[in-house]
């Protein structure tokens, strides 16, 4: 890739960060990991062609042009959070993905919190998931627990943070986050 292509890709990823909260490659990889999908299946659920998904992930293309696809991405993000915190089983997630795939937009996940508040600010769950994703991209849960154990005698608060966000359930991390925001 030449310098001009690298610059174009970097610009596309920066636009994605401003529009979607993060580059789509990172977002889609998290959905693939959390929901046990491959790229072809993710593309099918979202209603994109596999090449289009690949272009969005690589930064060759910046924007998702179809608003219904954006809403499906948001629905999958919420579903991913529910799977991660254990409130939705893998079987139920598969059924919900079929509902999302068929949706023309709008929320198909009734009774769940939205990814952002009405002001457009990220919800606590979204912030927590970003923290978890960052920690888990750096190290495996077992290594995070080992690090927490070595920090515990001298820095118990940091050890708790690592355990809760690095290896714990999303619901527990949300409770921890909310208890420390006063």
From TrEMBL:
Comp. bias intervals (Low complexity): 103-120
Transmembrane segments: none
Gene3D superfamilies, alphabetized: lambda repressor-like DNA-binding domains (1.10.260.40)
UniProt region (Disordered), positions on chain: 101-122
Name of the protein in question: Helix-turn-helix domain-containing protein
């Amino acid at each position: 890739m030449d310098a001009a292509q690298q610059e174009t890709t970097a610009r596309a990823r920066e636009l994605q960060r401003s529009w979607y909260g993060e580059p789509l490659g990172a977002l889609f990889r998290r959905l693939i990991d959390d929901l046990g999908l491959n790229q072809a299946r993710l593309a099918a659920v979202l209603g994109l062609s596999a090449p289009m998904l690949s272009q969005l992930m690589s930064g060759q293309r910046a924007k998702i042009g179809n608003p219904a696809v954006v809403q499906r991405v948001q629905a999958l993000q919420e579903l991913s959070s529910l799977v991660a915190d254990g409130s939705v089983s893998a079987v139920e997630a598969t059924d919900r993905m079929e509902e999302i795939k068929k949706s023309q937009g709008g929320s198909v996940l009734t009774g769940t919190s939205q990814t952002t508040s009405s002001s457009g600010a990220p919800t606590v769950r979204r912030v927590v998931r970003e923290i978890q994703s960052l920690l888990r991209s750096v190290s495996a849960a077992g290594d995070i627990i080992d690090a927490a154990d070595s920090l515990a005698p001298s820095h118990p608060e940091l050890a708790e943070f690592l355990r809760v966000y690095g290896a714990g359930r999303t619901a527990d991390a949300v409770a921890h986050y909310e208890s420390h925001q006063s």
